[in-house]
Structure formats: C-alpha cells, structure tokens
Amino acid sequence: MPTTTRSKAKPKQADEPPIEQPTGAELVVADATSEQEVLAVVDRHDEAMIVQELQRRALRVMLYQFDLNGSMVTDLSYLGVNEAVRVMNDRRLWRVTVDRGSLVCESVNEDLGQGVEPCWQATVYAVNELSGYGQFGAYTQPKRYRLKDESKVQRAKRRGDVVDDQKRIADKFARSKAINKAQRNALRVHIPEAVRQTMIAQYQGDPERIRVIEAGAGAAELAQLPPPLTDERSREQVEKARGLFDELTTVNRLAVLPAQFHAYLTRAEHDHDRLDEFIAYLAETLERERKAAEVKA
Question: N or C, which terminus of the chain has less Cβ within 10 Å?
C-alpha cells in the first residue's frame, strides 16, 4: 500500500497589519523625559486601535501605562474612553452622546511640525443631555502617512502605492482617524476623575486589558520582532513556560526575575524552536535550583 505523509502545518502568524497602522518602533518612546514625544506615542497607540476597529478586530486594551519623566502614568486608551462613557450612561446619572449633526470634517493645509501638508480636520460636539453641558473635540490628521519602517516602504511599493521622497503614502484611514480622535477628545472631557480612577482600578490587574508603552533603545529592538505565533502548539508552549516560571519562583524567586522572564518570552514567542529552547532553559534552571535547595536543607 502506498504510504502518505502529512505535510507539516505552518505555524499560524498574526495577520499582517495594514501599512497605515502604526507598529513596531513607532509605538515605542525613545525619550521618556520628553512629554511631547510620550504623548505623541500614546496617540499613535490610539491610532493603531482605531485602524484595528475599522478592520473589525476585537479590542481589549482599556488602559495605557507609560513612563513620563521617571513617573509611571496610567490612563484610559481610546477603547477605555468609550467604555467609560458607556458605563456612565448605564448608571443613568449621565447621558453623554456625540451630536452626529455637529460633525465637521474639512480638508485643510496645516503645519503639524513637518511643514505644511494636506490634512483632515475634524470637529465634533459631545453633550450630556441630562445637564446640557457640552464640549467640542477636534483633531487634525495628516492625509499622508510617514513610513518609518523600511519593510513597510517595500510593502507599499509592492502594493502599488506612490511613496514620495519623504517615505510618505496616501493614508486611506486618515479621515476616519481624524473623526474618531475628535470624538475621543470630546467624550474624554465628560469623564469625571472618580470614574476614570474606578476604570483604572477595575482593569489594572488584568494584563490583557492594560498595555505598557515601552521606552528606550532596547524596547525599540523588541518592537521590531515578528508577531507572536497564535497556533495551539505555541499557546501550549507559552502556558508550559509560565508554569515552569511559577514553580521556579516558589523555589528561588531570584533565579529568574519577572522582567527577565518576560523579555526572554517576548524574544521567543514568534518561533516554536525558540520557545522549546526557552522551556528547556527554565526546566534546567528549576532542576538546578531544586537540587541547591535540597543541599541547603
């Protein structure tokens, strides 16, 4: 009888994000002492979330945590702002809504720091219908997206985009980005500090709901790594690595520090073989520490 061999399934990678979605080093702070740079990176994280939402991706990150001048700051993400308003309205003490008829989105030419360029400028009005208090929110979004990653430049050229001499392409999401950010700014004004702090307390302990915005050259290097694997085997490998680390901390919590564990895991998550090597390292370390503990006993 003829024998058949089953082809080895390729590991499932996360879908490649649109070119116009900020990724990698664009989402890393180079200088945490520069408030302007930190806030610009936080805004790019919201921009990435807006593009994901337009692609109908499930969003989970409610909070951002980032270093600013040596202090760790925690605040609501784009999704967190929308969720806070929903919670407020559910309590029936507020009825905050965006006045759809107030939206104005105009084509303008503005200098946002890189010279005069064509932009979308959106303005929208959000009002608490119970009190009558309202506030406008505005945002100006460049129509062209600057590609900081050479791999994105090559993808854009293969896609047939015109890339100018400043490595910019037409951003098909630009108008939606401007409108969504204007709505975010208008709604954020209505969120009382007590509600904001309650939201932070609710989600701060859930790693899936909080995104730490990294800073420094090392963080930029990590940001350029391929996306993590998402297949069943990789999930089992990550779970095994976490289990070994938990056991290791009960034997000697200083053998592998949490920051070291997460750094190693981040560097391995995109490759099955590297995950196996990491698991083997943790198992060997655990065995060595157990023997050392027995000797001391």
Answer: N
